[in-house]
Amino acid sequence: MIGVCLCCLTGCWDKVEINQLAIGELVGADMDPNTHKQIVYYQIANPEAIATQKGGGIKSPVYTYRVQASSIAELGIKTADILPRKLFPDQYQSEIITERYARQGLNPFLNFYERMYNRRSNLYLFITDSPLSDVMMTYTSLERLPGRYLRSLIEIQSESTGRVSKKSRVKDLVENMESSILTVMPMLSISGSKLLSTTDRYEQINANQGNLILSGGAVFKHDRMIGKLKLKQMAYYILLKGESNLFFESLTVNGRKVDLQATKLKVHNHLYIVSGVPVWKVDISTRLVIINNEQKKDLTLENLTEIIEAFNRQVQEKTTDFYQDTIRKEWDLFGLEDKIKYKRGKEWKAVQKQKNAWNQTKFQFSVKSKITDIGEIINPYKGVK
What span, in angstroms and rounded, lies between the C-alpha atoms of 243 and 232? Predict the structure, then answer.
């Protein structure tokens, strides 16, 4: 029985050694606007450099190969011309697409990607407004594998700032390809003007210069990029989507700055109809933590109430402004058109016959919050008078 079970195991069945594989960890794609040729950058991990080095100079943890072909399918043939090992794409961590390629439409790329049996649909997808050649030739600090660095950046940001969602994968874009729902993918840029493409990077203390950073969101309709969101707007978008774990807001209370962190966010939304007009109601409840309090007055119950009311009022105003801005741009970021389509009832049938009825949807927003953590000190230090 043990012998029969062993025959079913697939480990090392193809007898391919690791030194025969080119392990890809990051891939970037672009399209030449003039020749329409496909351009791909493969970033291949260097296992010897990733392991702990003892003595000797610093070795490159990755090598970047540029491949250009007249079609996506031909890229595999061209890749074999320059790679001395068999490309192993199963370990890709992230995918980067240029903004110009995204604005042309990613349908050919996504269809080709979906046909691959060894594809990874949980790859995080980034859109870059920086030159792809610079992005793919940039070494990252702390995490030396750029693909893993970008993956960690998404996961940490989603947990600690609420400005990025983990639903930023290739599969999330594919799922909305044939619906009216818009998709937002993270935007990627290079900080600073100096490109750090040599291992001297690891001997410099300035980690900000020439680093890869998140700069906003790319808005997709079907397979085509149609606009951008600023990084600050991303927080309100993810909040309304109900995907926020944390939310930060800076207020001015009694002429002084107060910074709050919203935790344990609960979002309830409901689409209903009033006098033939759709209404989208979003209710949010949260617990607040005071991160910074620069007020000169004592933190009394009355003052806590002022902070809570200021938080509720400001979040309501900013969120409503953001929603109205998306309506003006005709961006259905919250899938209202799709929700209206599947509603039942005579009133809804009349609305469904109207063109762009979702664009007339009224927005109602409410926030309920309470302060549960004020920090280590109740009242601020006032110094010597």
Answer: 15
